[in-house]
Specification:
The chain is mainly alpha-helical. The chain has 4 helices and no strands. It is 83% helix and 0% strand. Helix 2 packs antiparallel against helix 3.
Length: 111
Amino acid sequence: MTSLSFLWLGAATAVFVAANAVLKLYATKGAVPVLIGALALFCLGNWLMVQVMKANGLGLAIALSAIFQLVAISVMAIFVFGERPTGLQLAGMALGCVAVAMIAWPTGAKG
């Protein structure tokens, strides 16, 4: 993955985290303009992900995006919204990180 792809992925992750934060606000307050804002952010995040998919393929882009979002949204849930995942949930997140590292690991030249 190139540094430009990581930049696109980082931007998409930031937008998806913002979209999920807005969606959490919608879930607690229920205002329709908040929902529309969340949906607009999700659309922007998906457009950014298309740039990552173009450069790296669908499988790798989605795998990396999923783990980046898992970690970023979990950190936000813990520190912003005060949620506390269980030990089993934290172990699942760690296994997810290991799985994606194995998927994204460079394999070298194919012969």
